[in-house]
Structures are given as C-alpha cells and as structure tokens.
Design brief:
There is one protein chain. The chain is of the alpha/beta class. The protein has 2 domains: 244 residues, Aspartate Aminotransferase, domain 2; 126 residues, Aspartate Aminotransferase, domain 1 (Alpha-Beta Complex). The protein is built from 15 helices and 14 strands. The strands form 3 sheets. A 7-stranded mixed beta sheet has the order 2-10-9-8-5-3-4, sandwiched between helices. A 5-stranded mixed beta sheet has the order 1-13-14-12-11. The radius of gyration is 21 Å and the shape is globular. The two termini are 32 Å apart. It binds pyridoxal-5'-phosphate (PLP). The site of pyridoxal-5'-phosphate has 13 residues, from helix 3. Pyridoxal-5'-phosphate binds next to helix 3.
C-alpha cells in the first residue's frame, strides 16, 4: 500500500517509483513472508528458518565453510559497531581507507568508541586509493593495525572500490591485519567472494539488495577474525561474536529472534536463487548502464554530471548525479517525487544539496528504470536545470544492446 501524508490527503493513484538505494522496494513475495505469525521458540521451524538464512547469506557472500554467519537486530550501523567492539581496542588500531561518506562514518564511530583510527587520503568522486592503503600498511611497522575496514560501495558517491586491490595491498605490504568488508550497498548487486578476497569479515544489512525492511544486520565472520575477537579483552556483551556462536535461536540473537524479518530474508534469498545470482548481478549492471547513459547524455547541457569520475568505479547499485552550482538537489527531488512520482535519495554530508542519487538496487527492472529516468528528466525541465534532452532515449539505446546475462 502507498504511504500517505495523512488520512485526509488525496489518494495518489498507481505506484510511486522508489529509487532510493535503501530502503528499496519490497517484492510481493517478501511482503507476504513478512506477515508471519509468531512461533514458540522451541518450534523446529524457527531453527529451520534461521538455518536457511545463515546458509543462504553465506552462499551469497561465498563465505568459507567454517565461517560463522552472525545476526544482529539493527541496521548497518549495528554491524559496524559489532566489528569495532570485537576487533578493536587498546593496541588494536583500525585502518579505514578514505572512500567517501560511509568510510568517514565508520571511522568516526570507531574513534568515538575509543579506537585508534588511521585513514588514507580521499579525493571526491574517486574510489579508495589502494596504493595509499599499501603505504599506510607499510608505515605500520609494529603492526598496530588490527583490521582494515573497507567500504565496498560508497552509497553517498555511487562509487565502488576494488576490494581485490585492497587484498593485494595487504599482501604486498606483508601485513597481517584482518580485512573487513562493508557490503551493505553491494550485496546481491556486485560480484563479491569472501573466499576469493581472503576477507575475514563481510557485513551487510537487510534493506538494500536483499529487498527486506531495515532491522536485520548480519556478517560472515571467518575463523581468524573469531580468534582475534576471542583474544580481545575489551568488555562487550550484546555485540560479542563469541556469544552469538550458539546452538539455539535465543543465543544466536542474544534474545528473541525477529522472525518476520528472517522470513523476509528467506523469501528474498529464494527470489535470488530463482533468478540466479549471475542473472541478478547482470541485471544490476544492465540497469546501472542505462542510468549512466542517461546522466552522461544530460550532462552535455552543463547542469548535471556523474559524480563518480572513474568509469570502472561507477556503482551498479546507485548513481550520484552532481548538480551545477546554483541548483538545489532537494528542490529537484521534491519535484521528481511530488509531480512525477519518482522518489530519489539526496546528497549526504558534504554532498547535501549538491547531488541527487538515483537508486537502481534490488527489485528493479527495465520498465521501472526508464519510467524513473523519464520522471527525472521531466523534473530537470521543470526546475530549469540545463540538460541535453533525450536521456531516456540514451538509456533505451543502452538497454537495447546490453547483455542479458
Ligand atoms: C555502505 C553503507 N554502509 C553502512 C551504511 C549504514 O547502514 P544503515 O543506514 O542501515 O545504518 C549504509 C547506509 O546506507 C551504507 O550505504
């Protein structure tokens, strides 16, 4: 059902197209799964549900067989805090490679919790500089850095960094730090293999590529990271990984499990399996290519442009579109939402007002993307933002030749 401003607000017919990079639209199968009556926690269906989610999520990130899949009731920030609480502490610094708003946020959180945080320089519109990561690791001669906390896709800038390059930086520097990857925005959108990357932790949340409401964070934790956490004397309870490696549902969640969210995740994993993961990833790449084609076309008019300056780093999940000075991203969003029924996300932190973000993540298809781009082109016109008309045609042209698999 469409959310309404108030009971007396006029009904908006049809469906508003949601193109935020999270929360993303819920497929009908997920909506239906969320309508689950509670079960008593001894019901074997509870453990079967949790087990299916654990196995499915481990497969999604290609986790090693002996990795543990741990859940936390919470959003992506909860997953971040779990990592900080388990891996960092006195004598255990974090290297958080500069990559945009979300790297900054994670670094700020770790520092706020008392951890020593080392960063690397970051230029707006660019992915993580893996050479700077390697240098920071080489400079850390006494191995104070316990973990590299790397954000795969910076959702604020629409930029995906090369996680294999971060792995190579660790290997080249001969540094033993653990590799922790934030896949909140890249899960089920970008190819990601914990095994191939030799990653120690991969974390995600329910509300983006998984197409489930927010509220469930999870992480695959390898044996080396579990051992490091076991040796970490910093006090913690709710976040403690060791406590979560439990045989029963109450232990796994440090309390009552959120069964409807788990049912939503199971339904989502079923949809991904039905479509097949390679086809899901190919669809994300195809739809992103259409959005990139449209924005590139509009950019000839001078009022907008792609925020990501490196074509190979453009995210398949979300496109951040720069606005020329003097144009207000929030006003553009409002016109797109209220007049054209296309909901975009806004700019975050230093990008507030300067960019709008077009989500193409999760339960999206060609018709929805073309409709959204048409609405955004309409809103650009209403707002008088200079752009070359015909972005939708450019997107159609891109979709017409993009490989289906
Ligand atoms: C890459 C990334 N990491 C972490 C977060 C934080 O997640 P949450 O908003 O669920 O706390 C987000 C949110 O958009 C994100 O995009």
């Amino acid at each position: 059902m469409e959310p309404s401003m108030s009971l007396s607000a006029p009904r908006i017919p049809g469906r508003r197209l949601l193109h935020s990079p999270g929360p993303t639209p819920l497929p009908d199968a997920v909506l239906a799964a969320l309508m689950l009556q509670p079960m008593d926690l001894a019901d074997p269906r509870v453990m079967a549900l949790i087990g299916d989610c654990e196995q499915g999520l481990k497969a999604l990130v290609d986790a090693p067989a002996d990795a543990e899949l741990l859940f936390f009731i919470g959003n992506g920030h909860a997953a971040w805090e779990a990592v900080v609480a388990n891996l960092l502490g006195p004598g255990r610094a974090a290297l958080v490679p500069g990559g945009g708003t979300f790297s900054n946020g994670w670094a700020e959180m770790a520092a706020g919790l008392g951890a020593e945080v080392i960063g690397t320089p970051h230029a707006e519109g660019q992915p993580i500089d893996s050479a700077a990561v390697e240098q920071a690791l080489r400079d850390d001669r006494d191995h104070r850095i316990a973990a590299v906390l790397a954000v795969h896709t910076d959702t604020a800038g629409g930029i995906t960094s090369d996680m294999a390059a971060i792995r190579r930086a660790l290997d080249a520097a001969g540094h033993p730090a653990l590799l922790v990857i934030d896949a909140v925005a890249s899960l089920a959108a970008e190819p990601l293999s914990m095994r191939a990357l030799g990653a120690d932790v991969v974390l995600g949340a329910s509300q983006k590529g998984l197409m489930v409401p927010p509220g469930l964070a999870f992480m695959a934790v390898g044996q080396a990271a579990l051992a490091s956490a076991r040796d970490n004397p910093v006090p913690r309870w709710y976040w403690d990984w060791q406590r979560r490696v439990a045989p029963h549902s109450y232990g796994k969640f440090c309390g009552t499990p959120p069964l409807p969210l788990l049912a939503g995740v199971r339904a989502s994993l079923g949809l991904i399996a039905q479509e097949t993961l390679p086809a899901v990833l190919a669809r994300h790449r195809r739809l992103a290519g259409a959005v990139h084609a449209a924005v590139t076309h509009w950019a000839a008019g001078g009022g907008v442009g792609l925020h990501c300056r490196v074509p190979s780093a453009r995210s398949v999940a979300v496109t951040a579109m720069d606005l020329a000075p003097g144009h207000d991203g929030e006003a553009l969003r409002t016109v797109a939402r209220e007049r054209f029924q296309v909901a975009m996300a806004g700019g975050l932190a230093t990008l507030a007002g300067r960019v709008v973000r077009i989500g193409h993540l999760g339960d999206q298809n060609e018709a929805g993307i073309l409709g959204a781009l048409a609405g955004i082109e309409g809103a650009l016109g209403v707002q008088g933002i200079p752009h070359a008309r015909g972005g939708v045609e450019a997107a159609i042209a891109a979709l017409s030749v993009a490989p289906m698999h």
